[in-house]
Every structure is written in structure tokens, then in C-alpha cells.
Fold this protein.
Amino acid sequence: MEAPVTGPTRASAADIPSLDRLLNASSFASLIERYGRTQVTSVLRAYLDTLRPPALSGALTQASLADDAIAAAVESMLIEASRPRMRQVFNLTGTVLHTNLGRAVLPEEAVRAVVQALTAPVNLEFDLSAGKRGDRDSLVDELLCELTGAEAATVVNNNAAAVLLMLSTLAHRREVVISRGELIEIGGAFRMPDIMRQAGAKLVEVGTTNRTHPADYAQAVNPRTALLLKVHTSNYAISGFTGSVSVDELAELGRAHSIPVAVDLGSGSLVDLSRWHLPKEPTVRETVEGGADVVTFSGDKLLGGPQAGLVVGRRDLISKLKKHPLKRALRVGKLTLAALEAVLRIYRAPELLDDRLTALRLLTRAPAAMHAQATRLHPVVQRAVGNAYDVAPAQMFSQIGSGALPVDQLPSYGLRIKPIKGKRASVVRLSSALHALPRPVIGRIAEKALWLDLRCLENAEEAAFAAQLDDLHL
Ligand SMILES: *Cc1c(COP(=O)(O)O)cnc(C)c1O
């Protein structure tokens, strides 16, 4: 409650200027030019309404009713209202491909390609050599085949869409055999049994949670079987007494019964990550060469590109997928294709990948570089958070994220911030204050400390990170 104002500075409700007069006052001219009359009018009206209660209770001053004072208040409301809801943040969570933070950050080449596709007409579905209508998949399908060894390829909105399209096309009203150890849920809304039902396919579970043998699949095969499906258990690991059937074994069984084998790879790396001492994931090429007839994977996980669902495999099967009505509903736009094409081109120079592909550059960042950065930022962050918190450089472990390799962790460095007992300090308050910065900083709370993993703070962004810490309000 504001203190009542007395004497001649006190303003009453009758002193509040009229909307019409203010809109024509010189103080408002530049606001109207920038934001338009409609927006300024509605914000100004809302602001004048907020002045009535304090005017009635005697808490309003004449000074606050000056044209310039009202214009300044309205301007800050307009600035706040025009701030984009989607904002850049600093991902210091330690999870490189963070689904909630938009997964892969795209390389510069992809950004340029997207801007080109945004600012002029493009040959999205126009065959320039034939001079007639073309197929948008043809912008990337040759590259996808070259990089995976597959015969044909198609692209949809995300991998969940790829699996839905694949099942709807190849297994509608028929049976799909899948191991009980692979009936996965990925991030709540994507559950294999639910997708099967949506696609009108009948799920036939075989084996047990921890072990499934080739004979389990063989016994389930009958004339209604449409597909043998293998799902990469991306976001969980079964360890101990386990056994699953390899793509090769499944392909052998499929060939014997003329039943296609589909593999949902999830992350679907195009290169062997062990080359960079990262944990090994099955590559799309290995899966195709192992005999899979259709392989689905995401564009924005380990591939490091835009959100997309990629399907590669046998020409006849891909051709059926492309003709299904769902393909039209699930198709990608030109921005996705522009980014995807640029990212796939980077893969043609695999030896340069860890420098050019942003996601891989972050995943392979040298611990020494992060250690040096932690040492540099330590005093800066300590000064910003004040003496109620203890900041220390610390070793921590990053994750690849997006379901890839849930068990393996990458050694990394960062800052661990602990509230000091007896002082007015809390990790939750600190975390909220970091979220409130102009470019929010997202860390991770664990063991009563806030951890800022520096893996994803590239050196080029370090100055911007440090500079805005002056705005931290704890
Ligand atoms: C991530 C994942 C999906 C879903 O992919 P989106 O691109 O997020 O739709 C499906 N299957 C597996 C095995 C996954 O890992």
C-alpha cells in the first residue's frame, strides 16, 4: 500500500487525463509510430484504469500524471508485451541435446540456407531440369541414400511421425511383431503400443523384458504378420542377464518368410561416434547393411539437424510410404528441408565433422577447454552471486540427451554454486534469478547446489554470458 499523498501534489481521479487527449499529445507520437495506434490505445487504456484505485485512495501524485510520465510507463509495458516469447537461453544443464531447449543447435551453413529459403521463392516442389512439378523429398533423398547406403528415403515432421507413417502404410489391420524389451515410452506422449493402435496395427509382443530370442519372433510369424519391428531402446538400458535379437538375425528371419524388417533407431547417428571416443551408437548405415528394410530416425538428435523424421530403406516400401495420405499431413516445410540439406552436406567431410557440426563440436569439447573456462568464470560468477554463495570450479558429467546413450556420461567442467548456511541464500532463488536474466541461464539443481555445466558455452559466447551477470538480482 502506497502512502497517501497530501497537499497540492495529490491528484484525484478527475485529474487523470483523457485517453483521446493523450493519444494526440506529442509524448505519444513516437510510440504510435513504433507500435501502431491500436496497440498503444489498448495499453494506454489499461494503464489509465490502473490509476483509478490509487487516485481514489489518495496515493496518486500530480507528477505521475504528466504526459511524459504516462508515456514512459506505457512504453515499458509495450516493450514487455513485445518481447518474443521464444528467447535464446544459455543451456548449462549439461544435456547437449535437450528436448525442452530445442535439441540440436544448427551449424552456420544451415542457418544461411534457412534464411535463403525464407527470403525468396525456392524450387521446393519444382523440378528445374524437367520444368515441371517436382517432389520435395528429392532435395535430400540422394544425400540420405549416399550417407546411409539405402535405396530410397523420405522425410516427415519428426521420428514419431516417421514411425506412425511406416506402421500405417505397412501394417494397417495386420500384425507387427516386437520384443517385450523394446516396447518403449519416449518422453510421455510417444509410447510404442499407442502408436501401433493409432496406425491400426496389431501389436504382437514376444520374448520377455530382459531376453528375447530369434525363435520367439519365428513362433509369432503367421500369414497376418506385416512387419518385424526392432526399436532402439534409446532412453533406458537393460543390464545384467539380457539378450536381444540383432538386426542381422531379424533380417534373416524376415527374408525366410518374406516379411519386411523395420528398425526405429531413434537417434540414428550417421557416423560411428567411437571415432571421437564417444560411446558407440548403431549407425543408420550399419542398420541398413545389416538387412533392415526400413529404418526411421530423428533429424535433431545425434544427427545434429532440424526437427525431422527420416525414413530410409527399400525403394518399393519407401514409395508406398510416400503415396499414403498421411505423408501429406506429416510432410516438412521448406525451412526444415533447407536446414536438413545443409547439415547432410557437412557429413560428406566426416573428418571435419567435429568442427563444423555444432552438436558434435559440443559433444567432443576438450575437458581442458572447459576447465580453463571454469577457472576464468569462477571469480566473475562469485562476484555476481555475492558472499551468500560459494562458487567453485568442479568436474561434472554431461549427457548427450534426447534418449541417446542414457547410461554413458561425458566428463566435463563447470561451476558448482552452493548457498552458504546461515546466509540468506537458496539454490531455488538463485536458479530463478538466473532464469530472469535477459538471456536466461538454465543450470541443473542437484545435491543442494546449482551446477552450471560449461560444455555448451562455447568460447565465442563467454563474454555475453559474463556481461549480463551484472543484471543478476538475488
Ligand atoms: C526420440 C525417439 C523417437 C521420437 O522421435 P522424435 O523425433 O522426437 O519424434 C522415437 N523412437 C525412438 C527410439 C526415439 O529415440
